[in-house]
Amino acid sequence: MNDQIAPARGGTNGLAVTSLVVGILAWVLAIALACLNFVILPVVTVATMGVGGILYFCTLAVGCLSPLGWLIGTITGYVAKNQIRQSGGEGAGMANAGFIMNVIGLGLTILLFCAGAVMGMLGTVDYSTWLNY
Question: Do residues 84 and 13 lie in contact, with contact meaning Cβ atoms separated by under 8 Å?
């Protein structure tokens, strides 16, 4: 019998996998919420004569998960890239893909917040009417 033990393989960096998976889930959630808020809910609101508008408030809390996921994915992707660079491990492609995907989502979120703030300051959007029913 041959009693040799194969050397343990390091495997893919766990943070690289986490960054990629969190980024994919955050993008899927963001696209699903965009379809829900801009396509489905307006139709439901019109069909129910305004009662469907309550569903918009239900999606507000869920809408915060995508930017949070992109932030977590950006951090884990950056840390994974540094770990892989130092140790020479596997998963550099996953870490890069996760980092880039999450930075794009986070950048778009910041851009949308800035655009909303500018529109609010210029008076093109009257946020006070949103609170009055």
Answer: yes
